[in-house]
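Data deposition worksheet. Section B asks for the primary sequence of the deposited chain exactly as it was used as input, without tags or linkers unless they were present during the calculation. Section C holds the resulting structure in token form. Section D is free text for depositor observations; keep each observation to a single sentence. Incomplete worksheets are returned to the depositor.
Section A, Depositor: J.P.
Section B:
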Amino acid sequence: MRFRVSGVDARTGDDVEVEIEADSQKEAFEIAKQRHRLFPKSAATLGGSRWVYKMVQIPPMIEITGGAAQGTVAAAFLEAVVNDDAETGWEFLRIDEIGVRVIPGCLGWLFGAPVYHLLYYVVTFRQWVDV
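Section C:
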């Protein structure tokens, strides 16, 4: 990775920036100290790329009327969700089921409300970005 390291020149006391090739920010700081006689303050990556992720919660149940085409309604719903985000550069990655345990609050607990579970579905998208 390429880093732009900012710091103070040990000889002149001036603020300077240098570009360094290193595997980590820590390594970039060490190189700046040794090769450039620099007291590093900060480092930013240059020209790197990485994945960013986006999660979209979808309903666990889809309601249809009695006359609707029942065989393909779930696939059509999911296809619409995926295509909407694909138009803005997001790549579909996967769908996960997330369980949530709901514990009643103070009043609910006092009146004997039970603990219950909810299921949510989350669609994960990713996008490759330059940093």
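Section D:
The beta strands are 2-9, 15-21, 38-46, 49-58, 91-102, 116-130.
Helices lie at 25-36, 73-86, 106-110.
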